[in-house]
Design a protein that fits this description.
There is one protein chain. This protein is of the alpha+beta class. The chain has a domain at 6-114 and 224-289 and 561-623. The protein is 51% helix and 18% strand. It contains 23 helices and 22 strands. It has a seven-stranded mixed beta sheet, sandwiched between helices. Helix 1 packs antiparallel against helix 2 (36-61), helix 2 runs antiparallel to helix 3 (70-87) and helix 13 (342-353) crosses helix 14. The radius of gyration is 33 Å and the shape is elongated.
Amino acid sequence: MNDLDSPTRQRLLLLFCATALMGASFITGWLRPDQETVKGTLALMATLIVATPIVRGVITAIRATGFGATQFYMDQYVVLALAACLATGKYMTGGIVAIILLFGQMLEERTTVGVEMALSKLRQLTRIRARRRSGESEEECEASELKPGDEIHIRPGEVVPADATVLTGHALIDQSSITGESMPVEITEGCEIFAGTSNLNGSLHARVTGAGQDTVMGRVQSIIEQAKESEAPIISLAEDYARYYTPLILLIAASVFFFTQDMERAIAVLVVSIPCAFVLASPSAMVSAIASASRLGLLVKSIRHLETARLVDTVVFDKTGTLTRGQLALDKVLVHDESLTEADVLALAAALEGQSNHPVARAIAEAGNDLDLPPITDFTEHSGLGLEGKTAGNHLQIGRSSWLLKNGVPLSFDPTSFTRHSLVLLARNGQHIATFLLADQVREETRDSLARLRLLGIDHFHMLTGDRLEVAQHIAQEVGITHIHAECLPEDKVKHIRELKAAGHRVLVIGDGLNDAPALAEGDVGVAMGSLGNDVTVHTSDVALMSQDLRRLPDLLLLSARTVGIINQNLLCGFAFIILAITLSSLGFINPIAAAFMHEFSAFFVIFNSARLLRFDGLELDITTLETPLTSQTISHEMVTASI
């Protein structure tokens, strides 16, 4: 019982006392039938004891919102049934019913694992110890005591206590608690690490950049807390109907008593009418879905967005950093000297570029990692223009075409004929010998992601980018997007999205940069991609994709569809069950005690049906093996079922 909180222990103690008194009342009636007063007093005491937490819960839940309000909708019927038992002197019946319902309520709370489990794990990650460095010494402290600027030591196997920048060391970091990705990330000097992630194998010395609620993990916990308390339209709709439900049930119970003069039948009607199945149908499914989404690296800010996602028919992509990696890579090498090979000029360029930290220089240097590079002497870097140096008596220059022209190097072609690539030119002893064409590369998973979205019935894809039209057309052709809007400013992107919505489309927008924030806010569902440290995109978007894997996008839509399907199942089964139970209770086939057991059965059915969402692992399909495209009906039934 060490993992039980104080209120749970108190209710267990009350249950034990009430059960003992009820047992004593039963034994007294069996051994001493003439002692009706003693028997009734013991049963009354048991009923009052076990009714105390139920009545207190109803009073507390009157003003509750979100998931907390469900207790009021359910327990008001319990209070009415207990009042009827006390008013008619049926203390034994009232006590047994209350014991069953309170015990069932506790089991329901322990079984509804969803967001509470996710939040519990997050809270455990924030309550960890840290090793703070002070000069050459170390001291242990709580992670909550760390401040930006503190230096910390993270040993192999320890949890990272705060967001930090690595000063020295090398390690593999498991970021699955935040991004949902199973593959560890290699961390070296200068890399960012995040609170709650795990250091697998190396020793790191780092400087704290954020602690407590200012960390990525803190923001994740805060957003999930908000999502738990939010309401989706489908939940609000159920609550609107609840105002008519209570008067109807009271009318049915009164009618049963009027026509039968049997109070036990009326009490049974009240007990089986407790709308657990209705009230839990939406919240239990939604919290389970949010827990699954967070495990996959999908941080849903409100369950309203989770419900809306299934209606999306158009996806709008940013290009740079979303469809592409957002980093230049060597695409092609043009050799202008017949005496040299591609490997020769790449080795010369990589040797020279390896002396610089410029992003373009790193792209060429990485392309020549496997080559035997010559030594460079007399290296000089001309900021923003190019590099020069010497090797084996040859003078090398590499950089912009304008810079080479300014230095008297004649070019072997017209650089204006290349509009899609960024050009880096290499000259040796004043002769232009090679040109390196660099371009942003499409993510490996981009084509797979779009194919999966098409299988889900989405065939409207738009690309909005501030890049040149030629670049946008090339990327769009690679991934299969036909609607392109290039050279867009942030306000242009918002305009295009508004036009799509005005045409009747439900639009999902996905982007990664600050310039995408207005577009994310304008879409029906805005997804911020790779938002670990970006406060603006996290707060502007509806869903934060904590990793860089676009394949989580179809997972989000599939999870939305599956969640609403589970809710509909819960509502349909709950409605059928209550109609059947009220009918049987009115006809006298079910007494109040049996009604209490039937009520708990319906509640557990809904909870366990919703808990199936916790096993959601996304859309697992090998698209290359599909011979014919699937229809939307096939997707909605076969694929959704297979994914759970």
